[in-house]
Every structure is written in structure tokens, then in C-alpha cells.
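Running low. Invent one:
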Amino acid sequence: MISKIFITGKSFGETCRYICEDLKRSQVLEVEGVRKHDLGLMTDDFELQQSFANQVKEKPVLHAVLSYPHGERPGDETLAEIGRRWLEEIRAANTQYIIVKHTDKEHLHLHILANRVSNDGAIVGEGLVIERGIKAARKLTEEYGLQQDQGKNLHQTNRQALHGPDAKRYRLYELIQEVLPGCQHMEDLEQRLMERGVSLRYRIDQASGRRQGISFRLENHSFKGSEVDRAYSLKELERVLALQQKEALEQGQALAAAQALEQKKSPAEGPAQAQEQALEQAQREEDEAQQQTQRQGMRLRM
């Protein structure tokens, strides 16, 4: 199961319509604190609670998607329970929310819409909420015995259905996947991606000066490495590059050793090879002479 969180500044009305309006693809599994039989009333309920906020919040809409691998289809009760648990894990349970199942793609996915203004008027979903969402998805995947995320399968992705940030995210994934195998250092990766129009930026720890995170920018969209794919976080990239550097070093050492051994063998084997070739040549000449003599004898007898 994969978690994606969108805090885009869209209104509750826009998001409610996108998630719930098309009945051919959507099924409301659970609501809390809002009326589900009418989209207008649902929007009013969300906006009413938003007005009770203890502080001004420009983006009160928390929209998330929980995606399941191709072929995995838990029951509706389990899906709703996972949605509730996920909200608890990201510390956004004490608020209004709706959990909606979508079946318009080959893989099943849930849309969760929650009010970042809690039932107490406090703000929820602050801080590292995207990171908490990713960790929550991993935890619930294990607890419910779901399929582990195997990374993106480009062959199963409906690329025509991707728009905006999602399309850029997949393009970044493809570009990193293309250039990473030929790199041994972060500088190599940075240079090759720059040649393809992608820039890198590091998050630096102010105390230690060490790199703590990485983000990639393609055109007007920027993504953290872990948002592109779990394998492209700074930690994972550094691990892969270290392995590739080690493999390249070992291959270079093996090649150098083989070349040195070949050079050592060449002087000793040279005379022997020359002598063998001379013997083979002499034998061929002797055979040809014998054949010539036999042919001459045959002509004399005739």
C-alpha cells in the first residue's frame, strides 16, 4: 500500500466533487461528522467546522490517496478500518473525514478527505505529515498482511491518465532509473540528471552540515526523493551508489590482475609458441613434399 498526501489549497467543494460525484467509479465507505447523501451539505459541514478554527489556516483540506498493488482487493470493511487507522497514525483522527473507494483504475485505491481543523478547533496534519503518511502505510501494510510495495511498475501504469504532478513524478522516476546504474557518486547522478533537465537540491543539517535529504526538480515541479520512489531517498541512493562504486572497484582490480597475469605469461610462452608453430610448418612442408613425390611417381608409371 502506498500513501500520497495532497495539500493543494483546493476548496472542500472542489475536492468533494472530484472524489464523490462520479458514482460509476466512487463508493463512500465511511463518513465522520458530515452528511454523505448530498455533496452540497457535505461541503457545508466541512466549511462550517473550518470557520471554528482557533487560528487562520490557508489550506484546511487534507486529501490523501491510499493505493493498493494490482490485483489486491481487501473488503470494504477492511478498507474503511485501514482508512481510520491511517488517520490515527498521522495524528488527524479527531476531525471530520470521508473515506471513498475508487475503482476507475486497474489498481484499487482509497481517497480520504479530512478537515485540518479538528473537532476542537485545533489544526491537525501539520509538520512532517507526508512522511508520517508513508510510515503509516508501511506499518498498516505489515499489520494487515498486505502486499509490500515493489516500486513502480511502468508497464502497469496508465500513463495517459496521469496529469500535472503525477506525470512529472513518473517522468522523474524514469530518468533516475535510466541514469543511476552508470553512477558511482552523487555528483555523477547530479551531472547526468542536469543533462536531462533535472536539478537536485539537498536538505542540510545546520548543526552538522551533513546532507539529510534530497529533492528533484523537473520544470515547475519539485519532489522529495522518497515521493518519487522509496528507493530514491537520499539514504537509499547513497547506499546504491556505494555498492556500485565497490563493484566497479572490484571489477577494475580483477581486470588489472588478469592483465598483469597475462603479461607475466607472455615472455615464457612466446618461444614455446614460436617453436610449436615452426614444427607445425615443417610438418606441413614435409607432407606437401611427400604428396608431390607421390604424384610424380604416378605420372612416371603412366
